[in-house]
Amino acid sequence: MFHTCGAKGPAADHAARPKASNGSKTLTVDIHCHCQSYPVSEMMKAEAERAGHAALAFGNLLTKSVNEKQLVDIQPKMQSLDERLADMDRMGVDVQAITIPPYQYYYWAEPEVGREASRKLNDHLAETVAKMPERLVAMGTVPLQNTEMAVAELQRCIGELGMRGVEISTHVGSEELSSPRLEPFFAKAEELDTLIFIHPMGFSHGDRFTEHYFINLIGHPVESSLAIGHLIFGGVLDRYPGLKICVAHGGGYVPAYAGRMDHGYHARPDCRENLTSPPSTYLSKFYFDTMVFEPDQLAFLIEKYGADHILLGTDYPYDMGEDDPLGLLAKVDGLDADERTAICGLNAARLLKLED
């Protein structure tokens, strides 16, 4: 189905595409891109009103206005495969691993409603992939507000719908990802050997983040940092060492400041109560996308965590995305051909189990 070397198709000869050491062109995979289901959005309006939930509620009047306009502007890209494929070709992307936008998690809904929404969202993703299986794969969503339902939907995503992973938020309401209630979900994900893609939704305490789009500019990286911290310090990675987790937006702030966590581990007993090794040991098991915008920041992630733990991402089709992912990678000096091809798509192909 997919070929990790000598990829064919409209994007195969993109000038910026890295090549392997043997000179062959390789598959380029976008691990971070979104596909909205508008019928589910309509379906959930009444439930949101009943629950008193307002999506994209934080931000000043200008931010809300910009967001509203963007949601209108990107609708053709969300709904038209022709537009999506044209953009993929322009960016040099062979395969997108599509996920829902984070405002469609619906963890705030009653469990039965959340389960119905998750099933419809996953059916929509699967139907979209079926229209262009050579260019698209999907990572599903699960109703994490109910553990049993989440596990069942995870199994359906992987076993019945043929999805390649699952996308989750950085927390579930007031619960962190280290909540004991979520242990069966992580156990099943480990058992299924499936990728978990963590993507934040705003920031859980946004009162100080309303100006300047801080809810996204600062809030998203903080949320990713908190999620990583809770998974590490809560002992989740100790209990489920086989988990494969990729964190959006370069993992937030923690990957660049892991030394502070390690210092706390050595200095304070409350920082090591659930751990058998320093926090950076677990941090090195995570995967991070390239969504950091600056080549020096991307170079740091590659040097610190290895080219084999970095995956190409664009955040398509949002304005906070990277429109030239291969161009950004090309600006990173000192990488050999195999490192570039690994980041370009071979790492994602391995984690998503794309066929040779």
Detail the topology: elements first, then pairings.
Layout lengths: L28 E6 L3 H6 L1 H7 L9 H13 L1 H5 L1 H11 L3 E5 L11 H21 L4 E3 L8 H13 L5 E4 L2 E2 L2 E2 L6 H10 L2 E4 L15 H4 L1 H15 L2 H4 L4 E4 L10 H10 L11 H5 L3 E3 L5 H11 L4 E2 L13 H6 L6 H16 L4
Parallel strand pairs: 1-2, 2-3, 4-7, 7-8, 8-9, 9-10
Antiparallel strand pairs: 5-6
Helix pairs in contact: 6-7, 7-8
List keywords for this structure.
TIM Barrel, alpha/beta, 356 residues, five-stranded parallel sheet, three-stranded parallel sheet, 10 strands
Structural class of the secondary structure composition? alpha/beta
CATH topology: TIM Barrel
Helix content: 40-55%
Major beta sheet, specifics? 5 strands, parallel
If you average the pLDDT, what whole number results?
88
Please write the string of helix (H) and strand (E) elements. EHHHHHEHEHEEEHEHHHEHHEHEHH
Q: How many helices does DSSP assign? A: 16
- Terminal residue distance: 7 Å
Q: So what's the CATH class?
A: Alpha Beta
User: CATH superfamily, called what?
Assistant: Metal-dependent hydrolases
Give the DSSP E fraction (strand runs of 2 or more residues): 5-15%
**β-strand number:** 10
Low-confidence stretches: 3-24
